[in-house]
Amino acid sequence: TYSVWVDGLCKLRRMTEALELVDTMIAEGFKPDTHIYSSLINGFCKAGEIKVAYNLLVQMDKYGCTPNSVTYSPLVWMLCKTRKVREACRLLDHMRKTGCTPNAVIHDMLLEAAEK
Question: What pTM was computed for the model?
């Protein structure tokens, strides 16, 4: 149920509340999962807070969460949107090195950004 609440708060762009809820969840002995981190990363990217999103990506390892394509997609999207295509490509390389296979959406974002 925490996952649903966090996702809902992120979709409403109530990011501070979403982070507070995750803090409460951790204080109660629950660990955030990949879905929760993906929701947070997506929300912060949409809010233009890519540094916070990156920090969350790094923090995932602390709780044993493995990022997937859904986790990486908003980061790639935001980097492409802000014309940081090389950084997006480095992120793609990082994904591959960690065993995460980029999906077609990620490839399309990169191709589209490279054409601009």
Answer: 0.91
